[in-house]
Each structure stands twice: as C-alpha cells, then as structure tokens.
Write a structure and sequence with these properties.
By secondary structure, this protein is an all-beta fold. Helices cover about 0% and strands about 45% of the residues. Strand 5 and strand 6 (about 75-85) form a beta hairpin.
Length: about 90
Amino acid sequence: MGEKLLHVHSGASVAFNWSAGTGFTSYELTVGSTYGANDIWPGSSITTTSTTVTTLPANGSTIYVTLYSSKTGETVQNYYSYVSNPGP
C-alpha cells in the first residue's frame, strides 16, 4: 500500500470523505501511529460519509487511518496510510 502525502498545518483540521458502501449504515474512522490503532483520533460511530479530524500531527510522521463500515451482521475494515507533512 502506498502512502499518500497529507499536508497538515499545526492546529489544522482535516476532513476525510468516503463513498457509502452498499447496505452499510454506520461508519467509524480512527487514526493511529500504527495500523489499527486509535491513539491519535479515537473516532466514534457515525452515519455520514465524512468526518473531520482535528488532532493530526504535523511533523512528517506516518499516520494510519482505519475506516470501519458496518451493516447488520458485518463490519468491514479498510486501512490507509498517510505522511503527515507540514504544509508550506
């Protein structure tokens, strides 16, 4: 999986958006310093397909985003990684 560059200014908020999967009714997005972790942003269950994260580091570190998509009897996890790079 290739990392994406995410420009983050100190104190900035970053909006994450995704497409709704067929039949999925709730989502949770977490951000951590390792895959599956939530030590940067714990997330919470939402029914929309976007959320804003306000606590991202702006220090060039790799951050790992997990998107949990849920429907009756099933939860799917998708993993993404970004480099949290201070913007110009």
